[in-house]
Write a structure and sequence with these properties.
Layout: H1 2-13, E1 28-32, H2 41-50, E2 55-58, E3 62-63, E4 72-73, H3 79-92, E5 95-99, H4 108-121, E6 125-128, H5 134-144, E7 147-151, H6 167-174, E8 181-186, H7 187-192, H8 197-203, E9 208-212, E10 215-216, E11 225-226, H9 235-244, E12 250-253, H10 263-279
Parallel strand pairs: 1-2, 1-12, 2-5, 5-6, 6-7, 7-8, 8-9, 9-12
Antiparallel strand pairs: 3-4, 10-11
Helix pairs in contact: 2-3, 4-5, 8-9
């Protein structure tokens, strides 16, 4: 009886795995809504579908819709607003899978709001850089069965205290922690930090929860996004490595270039994964 009650409790709180029919080329690839931050949440969902993505990663603070531009989308959204987004996702046949980059406070009641929001949307994961809240995060990860990935922004020359760019630091943060806590591997920011993404993925083997997968035109801080296969990141090698690691999270195209009309190039990125995965029979 006790075991049955515990199982039921876990089931109620468990995060949703990403449905298999959301795969494209063997991966759950779609868009980080920040790609379309000049537009609204509703438009980001539409553009993700237009580009061929079946999944989306939201970020906090985006305007809700052209009809309600003063309503901001984040974990403080009303139940009515959450339902509107769910309805839009269903209409566009897009699945919400992740949320971030969002600050997670040490304060458990405040942190719990983020996990409850993720649960309400059936998310697979949350993306953050709040390593100082690791104890609170681990407790809630165990309770909700929702993964948390620590994101990396580029190395900051004027702020040596910022260490998230270094995959070895991320690994040190999650070492010994629950297996559902790891990295949101932003491969573009590794390139901007002068690191080789393939080596970074290997350092974090087994701890990659999700990825902002990017191909950039050059190494270094001034680099910008390119369609997959046209830059320096060796996307085929990265996809092959992720597949070899048994990666089961979401790949987000976060295209931070040509902001007003990036959908065609985002579509090229998703098409690259579709074609490469099909060729590899994934």
């Amino acid at each position: 009886m006790v075991a049955a009650i515990l199982a039921a409790t876990v089931s109620l709180c468990a995060g949703s795995p990403i449905p298999a029919d959301c795969k494209t080329g063997g991966f759950f690839i779609g868009c980080q809504a920040y790609t379309f931050n000049h537009f609204t949440v509703f438009e980001a969902i539409e553009k993700t579908a237009e580009a061929g993505g079946k999944v989306i990663e939201f970020y906090p603070g985006q305007k809700l819709s052209p009809e309600e531009p003063n309503v901001k989308w984040d974990h403080n959204a009303s139940p009515e607003t959450v339902q509107k987004v769910k309805d839009k996702l269903a209409a566009c046949h897009v699945k919400a899978v992740n949320y971030g980059v969002v600050g997670i406070p040490k304060d458990e009641p405040e942190a719990r709001k983020i996990f409850e929001f993720a649960k309400s949307l059936g998310l697979y994961g949350i993306t953050t850089e709040s390593v100082e809240a690791i104890d609170t995060i681990e407790k809630l990860v165990k309770e909700y069965d929702i993964r948390v990935g620590f994101h990396d922004h580029p190395r900051q020359a004027k702020n040596p205290a910022y260490r998230m760019w270094d995959p070895k630091y991320i690994l040190s943060v999650v070492k010994g922690r629950d297996a559902r806590i790891g990295s949101c591997a932003d491969t573009g920011h590794w390139v901007r930090s002068g690191l080789k993404p393939l080596e970074c993925l290997r350092i974090l083997k087994g701890r990659i929860m999700s990825s902002h997968l990017k191909d950039l035109n050059e190494m270094g801080p001034g680099a910008h996004d390119m369609p997959y296969g046209e830059g320096v990141s060796d996307i085929p090698a990265l996809l092959t490595e992720l597949k070899a690691q048994g990666f089961a999270g979401n790949l987000s195209v976060e295209y931070e270039y040509r902001w007003e009309n990036s959908t065609p190039e985002v579509g090229q990125c998703i098409g690259f994964v579709r074609g490469y995965g099909t060729a590899r029979k994934w």
